Amino acid sequence: MGAWIVALSAYAAVIGRTLYTGRRSGRREAIAAAVFLIVSLYAAASFVLGRYWPNMDDMFTFMLSEPAQQMLQWLEKR
Amino acid sequence: MREEKISSAQLKGLLLAFTFGSSIIFIPGPAIKAAGNGAWLSILISGAAGFAILACLVPLHRRYPEMSAVQIFRILFGRVIAFCLSFLFIIVLTLMVANITLGLGSFFTTTMMLETPLYIFHFFILLAAACTVNAGVEVMARMFAMFMPLIFGTIVAVLISDLPLYEPGMLLPQFADGFRPILHGAYISYGFPYSEMFLFALLIHFVRKESKAAPGKELVKALAYNIAVFVAVVLCAVMVYGPVAGERKFMLYEMAKVIEIGGVFERVEAIAGIALITGSYMKAAIALKALEVCVTHLFRLKSGRTVLFPMALLIFFVSLTMFPNAAQAETFWSLYWPMITTLGVLCVAAAAVMSFIRFRKPN
Predict the structure, then answer these.
(1) Binding-site residues on chain B for chain A (CB distance < 8 A)
(2) Domain spans of chain A?
(3) What are the residues facing B260 on neighbouring strands?
(4) Each residue's pLDDT tens digit, B19-67
(5) pLDDT tens-digit profile of B203-226?
(6) Who's near B207: CB < 8 A, 6+ residues apart?
(7) Residue of B313, B328, B333 best to disrupt the A interface, most CBs of A under 10 A
(8) Do A21 and B320 touch (CB under 8 A)?
(9) How many CB pairs under 8 A join A and B?
């Protein structure tokens, strides 16, 4: 329940502020803000539903797993 | 809108705030765990890498004093490659701010306020950081200049107060397991905080041209101070805790815990906690400012203030959902994070090399 309240109030505050400042800024700014808000919905859904979904860090973990493990093995070799 | 400008000395303050930030508490433990008694040498090696990053950053700034890394990429590599590199910056910086927030949140929930949900801390940390960035880089530079003495004072006070506990014999043997553990420690401390310095390619253009001191010199000075203090903290931590120093997660906090002067002055770890909180907040704000600059210049926005809070909201949820457990978080930032930040460093290095080749004087 707490997670829902936090997520909803955070969105309400940020959308309210963005609409307020967006009136004075241009179209590009409004689009950029909307993109960030839309992208954040994925992480927000993962948070309020308490599910672990693939995240930005997983992309790097997937790409760098092999070289990182090889390097760790080399560094830990005594 | 008025152009934001800071002096070279203020830039030095920002670099000091960024490199001390949370790393002074988080890094000594894992570095000692990896490198043992030779962790001081690890710090020196990773610090040398930090100087190499500055050696790429400063000539770029000299060549393009009014431009951020995004604008420089556009000139040197063209629009498409510049977009890809800047987009990589955005992802790395988003993860960086999320990591800093998570680090501070974990500190609270594992040491002081065990029952409070993590999201409460993350919310207020990011709110404070976003409001600071919203106030502008000039305000940030002036405000952080007031906080830095607090952090330095705390570090010095903790190190001096622990004097009766030091056992110099604990520093021996050196290099008992060869040189590889030292390199492992250097790898960890390189990732956090030295390689992260690449983000100054997005902030250095705020320095005003007519600033008295050269920004390069000031940055080198700041990094040298940072390395000296880090080495001192690592040596002192080993002298206090010996071989088990690596098991301590929040080193400066743990060192403050054992202070006992005359049976009256003890359990002052909360003061070290204040230094950690302040440091993490400053680091998060600086990284968020760099992210704002990156987004503003990449999408050619008139002002980054409209996107600032949506970005902070994205980071808030990313920080809460990044890792299912603490072990995975630790693996991520000790193993993968140095490689991820190296991608950012390579972008800056490539720009420096490209700029050197393009503008080389003919014989």
Answers:
(1) 34, 91, 94-95, 117, 119-120, 123, 177-178, 180-181, 183-184, 187, 295, 299-303, 305-307, 309-314, 316-318, 320-324, 332, 335-336, 339-340
(2) 2-76
(3) B266
(4) 987 788 888 888 998 888 889 999 999 999 999 999 999 999 999 988 9
(5) 999 998 876 678 889 999 999 999
(6) B5, B6, B7, B8, B11, B61, B65, B215
(7) B313
(8) no
(9) 121
Which residue is listed with tokens 């690449």?
B198
- The residue written with tokens 């040398």 in the block is B48
- Which residue in chain A has the smallest CA separation from B120? A6
Q: Does the predicted TM-score (pTM) go above 0.90? A: yes
Q: Which domains does chain B have, with CATH numbers?
A: 8-349 (1.20.1740.10)
Three-state SS for B209?
A: coil
User: Complex ipTM, two decimals?
Assistant: 0.94
Sign of dihedral through CA atoms B140, B206, B204, B305? positive
Tens digits of residue pLDDT in B153-177: 988 988 898 888 888 888 888 777 7
Nearest to B102 by CA among A43, A49, A35, A72: A43
